[in-house]
């Protein structure tokens, strides 16, 4: 018995979406810029299978789902192999390639990467380097990104270079988000909700937690507050 395609296709899309979400979570997550070519191809393949499952109601759903599962498991097994074996890692993921070493361009390395000088200069400009003479070393990473080391005399001066001591600057703690107090964060830093309410009222003129979009406390004790629907010019800080 045939199911109405206007009912079956949305159902297939829903199930394919849920399984695709599950498989993606199993495989872990990386930023697109950090994906290797292999991971990129795997992602396209799984997405293509999901799309085919959605739009071809004449094909059985089960085998397609099995195919998605296999394409999900294989990268996991490959990842374990890459983790345990250095030779397999080099074959599957490749190796970083030095294209500028000690200020000298390696034309052969560029050719192996199928990259010309115009492309190299473009990538350097994206890193705010307009003079190739400023570069000490440049490496093509496995994900296609270019890592650049400037010549030491061109590096910005740091407080350590000037023997200047600095205060510790850790990550801020989010205490309120979308009008809700995150009480476990308050407990982690040994503060109370009453302290937070008083701080918001006396320093920022906030009477209701629901007014707060986000509130963060930095390691120096400064409370940053952003209010919902407030005029940017009048927002407290």
Indicate the low-confidence ranges by residue numbers. none
Helicity level:
40-55%
Strand coverage percent? 15-25%
How would you sum up the global shape?
Answer: flat
Instruction: Count helical runs.
Output: 8
Q: In which order are the strands of the major sheet placed?
A: 2-1-3-4
Class inferred from helices and paired strands: alpha+beta
SSE pattern: HHHHEEHHEEEEHHEE
Description:
The protein has 237 residues and is α+β, with helices and mostly antiparallel strands. The protein folds into three domains: 5-90, no CATH class; 97-154, 2-Layer Sandwich (CRO Repressor); 173-234, 2-Layer Sandwich (CRO Repressor). 45% of the residues lie in helices and 15% in strands. It contains eight helices and eight strands, in the order ααααββααββββααββ. The chain has helices spanning 5-27, 37-55, 61-84, 86-93, 107-112, 117-125, 183-188, 193-204, and strands at residues 97-101, 104-105, 135-140, 146-150, 173-177, 180-181, 212-217, 223-227. Helix 2 packs antiparallel against helix 3. The longest helix is centred in the N-terminal third of the chain and has 24 residues, at 61-84. One of its GO terms (cellular component) is plasma membrane. It is a multi-pass membrane protein. The chain crosses the membrane at residues 6-23, 35-53, 65-83. Keywords: Cell membrane, Membrane, Transmembrane, Transmembrane helix. Residues 84-217 form the YetF C-terminal domain.
